[in-house]
Design a protein that fits this description.
This protein has 16 helices and 18 strands. By secondary structure, the chain is of the alpha/beta class. It has a single domain, classed as 3-Layer(aba) Sandwich (Alkaline Phosphatase, subunit A), CATH 3.40.720.10. A hairpin with a 4-residue loop joins strand 13 (384-390) and strand 14 (395-402). Helix 10 packs across helix 11.
Amino acid sequence: MSRIRTSRAALPLIFALIACAKAADVPPDYGDRRPIVLISIDSLRADHCTPYGHRSETAPGEESTPFLARMAREGALFENASAASPWTLPSHVTLLSGMHPREHGVRTRKFRIPDELELVSGRLRQAGYQTAGFFSGPFLHNVWGFGHGFDLYQPGVTYLADPETGAHLAEAGKSDEVEGIHAQSHSDAECAEQVVGKAIEWLERKDRYREPFFLFLHLWDPHYDYFPPAEYRDRFLPDGATARGDEFLNDEIPLTPELKRELLGLYDAEIRYTDDWIARLDAQFEAWGIADDVILLITADHGEEFLEHGNRGHHLTLYEEVMHVPMLVRAPGLVPAGVRVAGSVSIADVAPTLLDFGGAPAWPDRSGVSLRRLIAGGDGNHTVRMDLLRPTKQLQLIGWREGSEKLIYDSQQRLTSIFDLTSDRFERAPRSFDGLDEQDAFLQRAVASLRLEPQTPVHPPGEVSEPEHVSTALNQAGYVDDK
């Protein structure tokens, strides 16, 4: 038998390598500061998610969100979570600040988060967390101030990072460059793969996953246009389907029942692709041995309208098809498995909840409220505020919800509508009023609450100056007149 001779000089190196290997096998001890991951999925309706009862019409054998279904089994699902606004920018400011749009003031595209407004990222960084954010939609760009409090905040996709994108897209005609960029940003960008890949790379570098971290991911894929990877298109669309995926907002193309059905199939395919990549991120947590330590919260910024009230897209109404969003949280040891919370809640409650779980001081003066009491079985409803300001279309809507009752006030039309979502879940039969002086108990509570809202933002928002490539990306995405 041959023997391998080892010099005495090499022994310390060998022992060091063995020690490192053993250390890598030992799960991190985070103490009271467990890792926190917040994921926002753009344009995701709650009623298109498996744990909310969805079954795809075009592919009944496929689940749209099997990972979210697993989260519902292993954690808590909020049955009645609402977005703050029916579009990305104000809703995400609310998500990260715990303030509803009239509090933070970023209600239109021309305003940005002021430097003095602390986000959940900054609050957790002060508590000792490493912080990173990766985004894939134009309205999450740091030009609006979303990078506050992050050690690293950057696009997870190349089309938002390259300044030449704007120059190419601004060119007249449809050059190869324009076609390629448009395809990358909407049809075949596969944003979730890029964003999740960057997040894993950041966590692996310097073994950051072994120390407390806050990770924010924004996943853009379910936003129109609907161009899922070919594998997912084939799974969710029947043979012979002709929908391209970019017809949805083209008013010149009639949205026939068959085209609508196929577009919904493509929408489900985009959702499933996104869900699968979240599952891959969770599998990496499993590989590192930290899945049971991670506090994972997943929600959406708004949903999407498919003619429920005659509209296509979003940024137009405060109806449930755009305001009812999924919200789930999994935190073994902190959140019981299989909890379903029936009370009304808002994405404004997300940041306060994460601060609560992370042991960081709560904000004393913001409208969002921690969800831990409801998760633990507490009864009641959180007050939900909704807002839409779109001057170019002369839209100014205020929404207020408490439990199953919901108010929408159209200040342009001076019309108040109240819905009972238990008996009228599709919002077809409102109680309507010509003013705000009717003797209706819910109306009076809503008005009393709305009168307490600040007339001006707590910290006046700054005005934004968009880089050309960001403006062009927004226009390509359909936000042509949203300033």
